[in-house]
Amino acid sequence: MITAENIRALIENDLSGQGFFLVELQVKPSGKIVVFADNFRGITLDDCVAITRLVESKFGSNLDDYELEVSSPGLDNPLKLPVQYQKNTGRFVRVVKTDGETREGRIKEADDEKFVLETVMKKKKEKKKAETEMQFVEITYSAVKTAKLLIR
Q1: Which residues make up the CATH 3.30.300.70 domain(s) of the chain?
Q2: What mean pLDDT is predicted for residues 43-58?
């Protein structure tokens, strides 16, 4: 029987040394297996084909009752893992926190616990043009409800 744990172990063990990481894995009751994978250098169609072939070679005829789909997470999907924040350091994101606060800015740095968001704050001055100031906000992943990349 094919389980999500079997597929996860296969991909993580065989491909992590090549920079790949598993973003999401779904084994649906309808018999569809959906794999979202990524790589620090970006993921190509050839990479998706290679992952498909790896899964097919491991599970062989056990896959006959399943439909396998391998894809990149895409720009419109939210960031879910610390490694995605690390990969996207330098890019702009919109973060909605669990307390409802929304912030936009550039990911300045990221580790396994938190990331730093560089935002622009406008300071109002009397009878003068507003000045801008860079602010660095440290956000833990547990405080994030959603975070999506912004296209600029």
Answers
A1: 4-71
A2: 93
Q: Is the dihedral of CA 74, 21, 51, 9 positive or negative?
A: negative
pLDDT at 126: 67
Other C-beta atoms within 10 Å of 31: how many?
A: 13
Q: What predicted TM-score, i.e. pTM, was given to this entire model?
A: 0.83
DSSP assignment letter at 2: -
User: Mean pLDDT score of the chain, rounded to an integer?
Assistant: 91
How do 128-140 and 144-149 pair as beta strands? unpaired
Q: Which of the listed CATH numbers 3.60.110.10, 1.10.1040.50, 3.40.50.1820, 2.30.30.100 matches domain 82-149?
A: 2.30.30.100
Helix axes 45-59, 4-15, angle to 10 degrees: 120
What would the two tokens of residue 55 be? 């899964």
A 10 A CB-CB count for 72 gives 17
